[in-house]
Write a structure and sequence with these properties.
Elements: E1 37-45, H1 46-49, E2 50-51, E3 62-76, H2 77-81, E4 94-95, E5 103-104, E6 108-115, H3 116-123, H4 128-132, E7 137-139, E8 145-148, E9 158-159, E10 167-180, E11 186-194, E12 197-206, E13 211-223, E14 226-236, E15 243-245, E16 250-267, E17 274-282, E18 294-308, E19 314-322, E20 325-334, E21 341-342, E22 345-354, E23 359-368, E24 374-376, E25 381-388, E26 396-397, E27 401-412, E28 432-439, E29 444-454, E30 459-469, E31 482-488, H5 494-497, E32 503-514, E33 518-519, E34 523-537, E35 541-549, H6 558-562, E36 567-573, E37 575-576, E38 582-590, E39 596-605, E40 611-612, E41 616-617, E42 628-637, E43 643-645, E44 649-658
Parallel strand pairs: 3-43
Antiparallel strand pairs: 1-44, 2-35, 3-34, 4-25, 5-16, 6-16, 7-15, 8-14, 9-14, 10-13, 10-16, 11-12, 11-14, 16-24, 17-23, 18-21, 18-22, 18-25, 19-20, 19-23, 26-33, 27-32, 28-31, 28-34, 29-30, 29-32, 35-42, 36-40, 36-41, 36-44, 37-44, 38-39, 38-42
Length: 659
């Protein structure tokens, strides 16, 4: 009989050194067919498991460097001058409201009542003549009545104001109550009906002096002009002891509606502003402010509105805001029309502040007119279209320009657990800071770069200025497109200092100081990093790692082991490097007695495509928590004269399959 029991599990360990964290916890394992158990997962940082001593090092060979990037970003001349420019006409109509328009109705409350003698006339007319004569007298007993439904409404309907047709209530708070001030008990089916549908229904028991109250929030209910009240199949058990009879006693019905919002129907809503939505608007800029502040001082922003199925009249209120808050407001009285309403905005002598995103924002509200109904329906909307007349597409700026762009980044290696295990290992001789700036353009830039580096027992810093004259003519656009500066660090004995900085800070300030002009659309990249010499390699760079592997130390797999005909072990993982490379790869798993259990050879491509081995048969004796040894080794190819990144790694997962 073929049995396959399996478990889904996945543990992706944080990046650690060749001293492994060991197998993952198997707590909570439950059988699950068609999958495997991950019993071990680990990630090895490439720079940590390199075996430099095993290489043939030569001062004449190719150099291998370890690089940690501090700053890696890009900018354009547009960002340097903080210029935003464009040309655009009226765009297509877009809905302002983000959802169905929902307007609020005024609160409404009303009461209806029946005198005691009116109750008798509707529910027990045969005793009307007798009981009407006992007003302000004593009635010794009353036989009551059973299961009576009046032929007509017992009270006139409640008239709901501000409703011109049956409407859909999105939400409403309904409070209704029945108060029994009669001399006898009333039990029956109490209903509220509106728009041809039941708003509320319940069988209630009302002893003398008692009451029933409902206070609830309802959703998606129909509401008509009237709310009809029914009290049907009413039973009165009567009484057998004398009572003082008063025909003026009352059976009272109360109802109130509040917090009622309607998105479908004809209503007269409350005269208040209701938020519809917001839009981002591009703005043509003719004059600019300082490097990080732009202001609209003149120009025109075109705007059109169109009602999509909404009958007015109502006011559409628009508020324009800038990065500092409120700026401009206007309103348009709108009614149903097949053509758009034109509502352009003129800026003259204003100071509309434009932030870095080069946008202003329009916020829209609808405000009904008192006494005028509005027709609403699901899917109705207010649409808008925006554009600009004046051309403001600027791709080439002529000076003078004196503006500053600051780029900076901070790395704290003390917070990265994958680096916490590092000890003094690599010599800081020949270490340096690299600043590399690439990009096409024209104009003159002054570039000031600085870095601060802190180690476990010391610190270092440097600063310098680069003059980058990219040329004055468009024909020189690509002639001077790169500047590289290396800043050597003072050699420090690795036994006292350590190879990896705890904190690194890099700042590059780019100043435009030119009367020649500047290209605004070209992209420039700025990279700063720390480079340390690993050694000189004439052919191969090896890595070696080993770790203990114990499987089933807590016995959770015992039942699977006992019920399996055979158990297979397999290996898989990922490898990734900043610079594309590959390596030979060997994997060896040994038992406690040193016997080889698994031996695998292959090739790793450091492109994160993943790798895996076939399955190998493993005996049950090795799955009892005994100490197994896992070895991995390889030689990295194609790295001569190149770099190893701090984030380069290879990961491994060990899986068991039970058959």
């Amino acid at each position: 009989m073929y049995r396959k029991l399996s478990i889904i599990g996945f543990f992706f360990a944080t990046m650690i050194s060749s001293c492994s964290k060991g197998p993952v916890s198997l707590g909570g394992i439950k059988p699950n067919l068609e999958s495997k158990i991950v019993v071990f997962a680990d990630t090895f940082m490439l720079h940590d498991i390199l075996d430099l001593s095993g290489n043939e090092l030569s001062q004449s060979g190719d150099s291998i460097f370890l690089v940690q990037n501090i700053l890696d970003t890009s900018y354009t001349g547009r960002e340097l001058l903080n210029f935003a420019d464009s040309v655009f006409g009226l765009d297509s109509m877009k809905s302002i409201n983000e959802s169905d328009i929902s307007l609020r109705l005024d609160s409404f409350s009303d009461s209806k009542f029946l005198n005691q003698i009116n109750v008798i006339s509707r529910y027990d007319p045969t005793n009307f003549g007798i009981l009407s004569g006992y007003d302000n007298d004593t009635v010794t007993n009353y036989s009551g009545f059973n299961n009576v439904t009046p032929t007509n409404l017992i009270v006139t309907p409640f008239q709901v104001p501000n409703i011109d047709s049956t409407s859909t209530l999105d939400t409403v708070r309904l409070v209704t109550s029945v108060e029994n001030h009669l001399n006898f008990e009333m039990n029956g089916h109490y209903r509220l009906v509106t728009g041809g549908q039941v708003l509320f229904s319940k069988y209630i028991d009302l002893p003398p002096g008692d009451s029933f109250t409902l206070d609830t929030i309802m959703y998606d209910k129909l509401l008509g002009k009237k709310i009809k009240l029914y009290f049907d199949t009413v039973t009165c058990p009567g009484f057998g002891t004398p009572v003082y009879w008063s025909n003026s006693n009352q059976l009272k019905f109360n109802i109130s509606l509040s917090k009622a919002y309607v998105s479908n129907g004809i209503i007269e809503p409350v005269n208040e502003r209701v938020f519809l939505g917001s839009s981002e608007l591009n703005v043509p800029i003719e004059n600019r402010g300082s490097a990080y502040d732009l202001y609209v001082c003149s120009g025109q922003l075109d705007a059109q509105y169109l009602l999509n199925g909404i009958d007015g009249p109502f006011y559409l209120i628009r508020e324009l805001t800038d990065s500092t808050g409120y700026f401009y407001s206007d309103s348009t009285l709108m009614v149903q029309s097949s053509s758009a309403f034109v509502r352009n905005i003129m800026f003259q002598g204003d100071s509309l502040h434009i932030s870095m995103d080069q946008k202003i924002y329009a916020h829209y509200y609808i405000r009904p007119l008192t006494g005028f109904p509005i027709r609403l329906k699901s899917g109705y909307s207010v649409d808008a279209s925006y554009g600009a007349q004046s051309k403001w597409d600027v791709c080439f700026y002529r000076g003078p320009a004196q503006n500053l762009l600051s780029l900076s980044d901070f790395i704290d290696n003390t917070t990265k657990t994958e680096y916490s295990h590092l000890i003094d290992s690599l010599n800081l001789t020949n270490s340096e800071i690299i600043v590399n700036i690439n990009g096409n353009g024209i104009g003159y830039l002054s570039i000031a770069d600085s870095s601060f580096i802190k180690y476990q027992a010391g610190k270092a810093s440097y600063a310098d200025t680069i003059a980058w004259n990219m040329g004055a003519q468009l024909s020189q656009l690509v002639t001077k497109n790169q500047i590289i500066r290396n800043r050597p660090l003072q050699a420090i004995d690795s036994s006292a200092m350590g190879a990896l900085p705890t904190t690194l800070y890099s700042e590059v300030e780019i100043t435009a100081d030119t009367t020649l002009g500047m290209k605004l659309e070209e992209v420039h990249t700025v990279a700063a990093g720390m480079k340390r010499l690993l050694g000189y390699c004439e052919g191969q760079l090896k890595f070696v790692a080993n770790t203990d592997l114990k499987i089933n130390t807590n016995g959770l797999l015992d039942s699977l082991i006992l019920t399996s005909d055979s158990i297979m072990i397999s290996f898989e993982g990922d490898a990734q490097a900043e610079f594309t490379t590959s390596s030979d790869f060997e994997l060896l798993l040994e038992g406690a007695n040193g016997k080889k259990l698994v031996e695998y050879s292959g090739v790793l491509n450091y492109n994160n495509d993943g790798w895996f081995t076939e399955e190998y048969l493993i005996s049950e004796e090795h799955l009892s928590g005994q100490n197994l040894k896992l070895f991995i080794s390889g030689s990295i190819q194609e790295l001569e004269g190149s770099y190893i990144g701090m984030s380069d790694f290879l990961s491994m997962r060990v899986k068991l399959s039970f058959y």
